Amino acid sequence: MVETPAYDMTIFKVHYGKMTLKIYSKGDRVLRIEVIVHNTKQYRWGRSLPCFPAIVIRLKGILERFRNAVGCINACFVSDATLEKLPEPAQIGQTRVGGIDLNQPRIRRVAEAVLALSASPAGFTASDLAQQVRSMSGQPETEYGARRAAYDIKKLRAKGMVRKIGKSRRYESAPEGLRALTALLVLREKIIRPLLAASCQPEPTSKPANPTPIDHHYERLRVGMRDLFNELGMAA
Fold first, then answer.
1. DSSP 3-state of 185
2. What are the respective helix, strand and coil percentages of the chain, to the nearest 5?
3. pLDDT tier at 203, thresholds 50, 70, 90
4. Nearest-CA neighbor of 114 among 52, 59, 160, 78?
5. How far apart are the first and last CA of the chain?
6. Burial of 114 (0-12, 13-18, 19+ CB in 10 A)
7. Which residue in 45, 128, 216, 222 could disulfide with 198, CB within 3.0 to 4.6 Å?
8. If you ran DSSP here, which 8-state letter would residue 37 be given?
């Protein structure tokens, strides 16, 4: 959830059960990040005063994981080696699993779901991933259930993008994997696709009335990509 209650102020919230993770500006130069537990009874952490220090330590860990997840998504990166090896099969334990091809709609939805669940305080399960994918795609449970999600998690684990939390059946995104998944999705959806679509037209039919800096960057990239395609003898 994103809120703008006042001028020049944006609040970013993630609601998870009876817990809220929040980022917002406080003053001109302060960015505040906090975690709020609305009811500790649901989490069985104890409610008496002696339990308070342990609860604070637990919440500090949740806050740090949330901050790291947001930081990885904000400053994403993918190496050429990852790009080359991603579609190749890999090994997880004694199981050989397939590669990751982001040209497949199913894998793209899984990657987007992992990004959405990366800020979950307690990680996520295969059922959580399946539910998130279905909420994004509108698929019924018969088409994408926990079993398929578990296999996709294995593929992500084999590539070092997702890791298991202890000996539980819960998972969390690895920092480098989170950066790589974000970068791959941004490159495909926000850069390559718009540029290919725009390069089909020598001149855009209409220009924004109030162009933003991103609009100017896209225009320069569009012209440069069109010239590059012409030199390579390739039609977009």
1. helix
2. 50, 15, 35
3. low
4. 160
5. 37
6. buried
7. 222
8. E
Instruction: For 229, list phi and psi in degrees, rounded to 5.
Output: -60, -40
Cα 19 to Cα 1, 117, 184, distances in angstroms: 13, 14, 30
Cα–Cα distance, 236 to 230 (Å, whole number):
9
8-22, 36-50, 155-169, 214-228: which has the highest mean pLDDT?
Answer: 155-169
Record the tokens describing residue 90, joined without a space. 């890999």
Q: Which tokens go with 63? A: 């806050």
Q: Which amino acid is at 87?
A: P
What are the tens digits of pLDDT across the range 125-159? Answer: 999 999 999 999 998 999 999 999 999 999 999 99
Per the CB < 8 A criterion, the answer to whether 128 and 110 are in contact is no
**Residue keyed to tokens 């998130």:** 132
Sort strands 90-92 and 9-16 into parallel, antiparallel or unpaired.
Answer: unpaired
What string of DSSP letters covers 33-48? EEEEES-GGGGTS--S
Q: Closest Cα partner for 55 from 149, 121, 145?
A: 121
Strands 31-37 and 171-173: unpaired
Instruction: Specify the pTM.
Output: 0.79
Total count of residues recorded for the chain: 236
What does the alpha-carbon distance between residue 186 and residue 76 come to, in Å, rounded to a whole number?
9
User: Could you say which DSSP state residue 50 is in?
Assistant: G
User: Do 171 and 149 contact (CB within 8 A), yes or no?
Assistant: no
